[in-house]
């Protein structure tokens, strides 16, 4: 989750209370779908749709993930698997595993660069959901692993993003950022203690931090992402010729 932003809606585990699976952060999930004509009048929705289209058409992070999803047998359709909605003020996006939809918070995403990061972050969750049997709702380690990967590979922790948050560090700062953001994401969607979240992240950190699929490297910039996309395409062509 970025700045209280992106994570799969997961189970609220408060004892004695009914689980809400994190949907409290995404109130539009429980509302009836509005007609297209009605939704088209809302500026937020139109802006969200335009930024989403630009991300999917031009952003190398998103393009690689979309291709990887397709190769894994989980083709992403723009009109089916993305939904621009109003959300709680603390989030900018989420992956709804129940519907295999990426929720984009149209009231909180205002810049194209922000949209790029949110879409990439959530597509990593979708990719993990496609390729692995992720138990989002009961296994906090599974959630921790996907959050580590999303923070590591989406650009959440690039130097420029960290500077914009007034966070500076030397050696190991990227790993620290990834760990901190994974913990924050878990705490935003699961009613667990900080100690539980930290333990889950620490127990799977090394394995999940070093799982770089489908990028094959940590893409610290769009240039890195473009190279990773090219390498992925070449790898796919090589495998097809075996």
Automatic annotation (TrEMBL):
* Entry EC no(s): 3.4.24.-
- GO cellular component annotations, sorted alphabetically? mitochondrion
Concerning InterPro entries, the annotation shows: Peptidase_M76_ATP23
The molecule here is called: Mitochondrial inner membrane protease ATP23
Q: Which family does it belong to?
A: Belongs to the peptidase M76 family.
Q: What class of enzyme is it?
A: hydrolase
Keywords in alphabetical order: Hydrolase, Metal-binding, Metalloprotease, Protease
- GO terms of molecular function: metal ion binding; metalloendopeptidase activity
Source taxon at top rank = Eukaryota
Choose any GO biological process term that the UniProt entry carries and state it: mitochondrial protein processing
